[in-house]
């Protein structure tokens, strides 16, 4: 399987810079289905940096593996900044990582609504030592670029969030 060269180049930078900073990373992915972890592990020596990766596609997986509360999922939905934040916090708490990134979104072609159209993706980054950077949660609206491109764009944003 071939990973997009732009993803691999950015993943190389993530691995190198986190190795230099002495940081380990974890990912919690939904709509990207492990694409961020795949890009990171494409890099030789990534095991110095990558602690673990969670693919939590279903709400049950988000709850069982990352501790995302049913209340958040029921009230705000899987595609919400609160859910992404809880996913990132859960990945951090359940790993030996120093930084975790979470992604949840609607890659399409179906599943969008008026409030959350196809191409809506939420991200969060949590850092063990909060002095090293604030908790980040953000929503991106990529538009209906097609499933593959939405997932690719989301993976690029997530990788950038892992840079020290």
From TrEMBL:
<protein>
    <submittedName>
        <fullName>CinA family protein</fullName>
    </submittedName>
</protein>
<dbReference type="InterPro" id="IPR036653">
    <property type="entry name" value="CinA-like_C"/>
</dbReference>
<dbReference type="InterPro" id="IPR008136">
    <property type="entry name" value="CinA_C"/>
</dbReference>
<feature type="domain" description="CinA C-terminal">
    <location>
        <begin position="9"/>
        <end position="163"/>
    </location>
</feature>
<dbReference type="Pfam" id="PF02464">
    <property type="entry name" value="CinA"/>
</dbReference>
């Amino acid at each position: 399987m071939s990973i997009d060269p732009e993803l691999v180049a950015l993943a190389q930078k993530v691995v190198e810079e986190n190795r230099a900073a002495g940081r380990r990373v974890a990912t919690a992915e939904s709509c990207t289905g492990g694409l961020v972890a795949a890009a990171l592990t494409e890099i030789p020596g990534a095991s110095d940096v990558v602690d673990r990766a969670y693919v939590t596609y279903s709400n049950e997986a988000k709850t069982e593996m990352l501790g995302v509360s049913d209340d958040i999922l029921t009230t705000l939905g899987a595609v919400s900044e609160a859910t992404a934040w809880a996913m990132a916090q859960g990945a951090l708490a359940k790993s030996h990582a120093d930084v975790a990134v979470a992604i949840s979104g609607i890659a399409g072609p179906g599943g969008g609504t008026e409030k959350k159209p196809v191409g809506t993706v939420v991200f969060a980054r949590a850092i063990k030592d909060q002095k090293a950077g604030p908790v980040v949660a953000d929503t991106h609206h990529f538009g209906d670029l097609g499933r593959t491109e939405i997932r690719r764009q989301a993976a690029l944003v997530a990788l950038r969030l892992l840079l020290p």
